[in-house]
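## retry 2 of 3
previous attempt timed out at serialization; input unchanged, resubmitting
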Amino acid sequence: MTAATHSPLFPQVPESADAVLDGLDPEQREVALALHGPVCVLAGAGTGKTRAITHRIAYGVRAGILQPGSVLAVTFTNRAAGEMRGRLRELGAGGVQARTFHSAALRQLQYFWPKVVGGDLPRLLERKIQLVAESAARCRVRLDRNELRDVTGEIEWAKVTQTVPGDYPAAVAKSVRDAPRDPAEIGQIYAMYEQLKRDRSVIDFEDVLLLTVGILQDRHDIADQIRRQYQHFVVDEYQDVSPLQQRLLDLWLGDRDNLCVVGDASQTIYSFTGATPDHLLNFRTRHPDATVVKLVRDYRSTPQVVHLANGLLSQARGRAAEHRLELISQRDPGPEPAYTEYADEPAEAEGTARRIRDLIAAGVPAGEIAVLYRINAQSEVYEQALADAGVPYQLRGAERFFERQEVREAGIALRGAARAGGNDALLDEVEDLPSQVRAVLSTKGWTTEPPAGSGAVRDRWESLAALVRLAEDFARAKPGATLSDLVAELDERAAAQHAPTVQGVTLASLHAAKGLEWDAVFLVGLTEGMMPITYAKTDEQVEEERRLLYVGVTRARLHLSLSWALSRSPGGRASRRPTRFLKGLRPGSGALGAAGAGGGGSVERGSGGGRRKRRGPVLCRVCGATLTEAGEMKLMRCEDCPSDMDEALYERLREWRSDQAKQLGQPAYCVFTDKTLMAIAECVPSTDGELAAISGVGARKLDRFGADVLALCAGEEPGEERAGDDAED
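## retry succeeded, writing output
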């Protein structure tokens, strides 16, 4: 393969079955060659498990041992299934089915329903939470928003563990599970929820699995038909299989054993959904003749990151810990993990944003940086800090790439240009494929330079820029490719949900980060009560929290930062302690690190930028209560307390901000956020000191915008001399 045609995004299809095995390490090669009988792959983080199993399938297909249509590969997310389909296509095995459990079951259910029941399959309930809310109301149980979400999760857990409503209270007691409400109440809501579904002829996602299981159990002819079609099964992330999914897998298999499972008990972090590592840990008991391969060569992370990850698991207890894998880094050494202690959460967010800005300035792409936290509620302060620092970000779990409006519009424009060919005036003066794409996408908002700051404008540009980069890679990999060829490639990627990389720092929960990786990872909020979470009370619950932190650590390739704050708000009592999981691992926390379990480095004391003065607790200026929420501290009053905002001033500030944002080419919130403008309109400052006291008005923003804001507060027209300044703070 020559340098001119090589591209990591568009590798050439291997010329032969043996060529599929090129580049695999000895253990991965052993997996690829184990094509018969039960196979169990114990794969640590970053060890190339997806590479191993996709090459196994592709080798079997290319060697003529496996028929593409006879293989069913299942995993747990659409993204993972899409990635698997993409890799198989690149290896010349595009006809293999790679689906989630739910997708595979739904496909079978839709096909066989008319034959078994008659008529069309009942409508699939996309969002069950609304029906759960109605069920609770009919049971005369009042649930707030958080309780509603938790009760919905309990119903999902009950169904995947095959627990009927009447048995729910006993099942909760047996599992030592903390129910969010009285189990008897939840049981009633669950029963009403099932009744309403029947009345309205709808099913939910768990019903898809339950109904498929029911059909395969009752109709042996249909079970035999499916077994004739699928002869070989591969299950990724096997540690996350629920009892219901295992039951479905058993029915798919019948009395055969052509099954390959891949997993890592140390990455079991979804037990609250019914997932259990028991099926993985018991695999060799159920299949005594199974081929077992361990993948421990870590190609993702540096020795320093792997050292810390191994240290975390060395302190673990329980059955999963007994089967932990000791990773061996295959990468060159890198920087030691950084440990930073901050006085409060806003300081931690500001310090993190500052370090991220430094990394980007040093050449690390924003898309290769992630901030990971325990719960989604922690994201707000980091969104604010990154926006203030002028750093683009994206929230994990947002709209899929190919479903974004700008991407759909770009696809329509590219398809139209491809059909028009030489008749499109846009393409008159451009010849090569990337230039054609740039010309077309320039009509949709793409420019050679990105807009400053973040927000919707920057998000749109990043999506279009990702398509431009994809076109450049495609042209390098396939010289002579046309615009029509690129459109076909985009269609295939959309079908496989194989999206290009969007540049922007990722904000995500630790759970949402599973299966992903970045060059630089910031693990934030690592305090007792958050990690482990306060409701993790049993030994097994605490151990799952340790595994969750392990998953976070192993997302990092090169740079790893771990931080915590001693108090929630500025001036608060420094009563928090860093997580117990770092004891003996972070410098100065005990003797364990000296024994080889932990990493090097040192603990820094974060200053939060050096401009935050440590004051006493922030008090509501209306009722005097201590404020703890970031939004309330910005307003300097409780959300429920009456506002004395000058509405006219607020509108003038918004108009002024809009003008500034347009002149600067930035989203409006990069000048000031809505909450900051509300606080200004409520306080109506008359001096620099009074304006600086408002949260969200830093020293640089005070210098750049202070005179204009104070003029507006005084009822005067703002000066013109500041309009061209840079809003970044």
